[in-house]
Amino acid sequence: MARMTSWQEFAEQAPELAESVRARLEAAKHHVLATLRRDGSPRVSGTEVGWRGPDLTMGSMPGARKALDLRRDPRFALHTNPDDGSMAAPDAKIAGRAVEVTGDELRAWVEEAKPPSEDSHLFRLDLTEVTTTGLADDHTHLVIRHWTPAEGLRTFKRT
């Protein structure tokens, strides 16, 4: 099993990358979440993310397929909204495992966030990898920044 880390730990280890990814997540309301269906095939869903204290979180309507997928198999991939396609800002992808928040912490979130239903799901997103892909300043190649808890931050160039 791949090592996981919280958003806060990621931000401490790779602050510039975390700032870039957070900006992409906050630039648009809706992003694309990939989960695994019972048969192992992928399911993509629109989703919103936010921060609760130091954690990257995702809410879901009660009984939504994506929430049921994550309860059964917590692995996920999240792709930021591609915006206008110009690549003016780097594209960001996050993968990891979603941990469902329950009990007092869930009740506190419901009281604070006031989701449409008190039966909503809340997941903390623990990270196994984060990647951004963007154009170099001179537009001659792609710059790929890839981070994992085990290997830290690595930068690649593709022409």
Automatic annotation (TrEMBL):
Domain Pyridoxamine 5'-phosphate oxidase N-terminal: 18-133
UniProt-listed Gene3D superfamilies: Electron Transport, Fmn-binding Protein, Chain A (2.30.110.10)
Keywords, alphabetical: Oxidoreductase
Entries under SUPFAM superfamilies matching the protein: FMN-binding split barrel (SSF50475)
Keyword hit for Flavoprotein: no
Pfam families with a match to the protein in the record: PNPOx_N
MF terms in GO: coenzyme F420 binding; oxidoreductase activity, acting on the CH-CH group of donors
Listed InterPro entries: F420H2_bilvrd_red/Heme_oxyg, Pyridox_Oxase_N, Split_barrel_FMN-bd
Annotated Gene Ontology cellular component terms: cytosol
Region (Disordered): 40-60
Name of the protein in its database record: Pyridoxamine 5'-phosphate oxidase
Protein's organism: Saccharopolyspora shandongensis
